[in-house]
Amino acid sequence: MTPEQIRTIRHTVKLTGRHPLHTTTQTEFARLLNTSAQTVQSWEQGRRHPSGTALKLLHLLHQSPKLAEQLQTI
């Protein structure tokens, strides 16, 4: 998964309680994925690549951005 794809997924995810035009921040996205904002930043800058569970979750969010609503309640 490329850094651009990860940024696109983050921008596609809409969080409950936020304005529909709100762009999900790296910190919010990290919280959703249960990782650090630094990790998300590293993925988006191409310094690191997501693997394992994070990669699978990113693929699921890419296929279904509304999954974020369910993840927020966990």
Automatic annotation (TrEMBL):
InterPro entries: Cro/C1-type_HTH, HTH-type_reg/antitoxin, Lambda_DNA-bd_dom_sf. PROSITE patterns: HTH_CROC1 (PS50943). SUPFAM superfamilies: lambda repressor-like DNA-binding domains. Residues 25-68 form the HTH cro/C1-type domain. It holds the Pfam family HTH_3. Keywords: DNA-binding, Transcription, Transcription regulation. It comes from the Bacteria. This is Helix-turn-helix domain-containing protein. It comes from Neisseria lisongii.
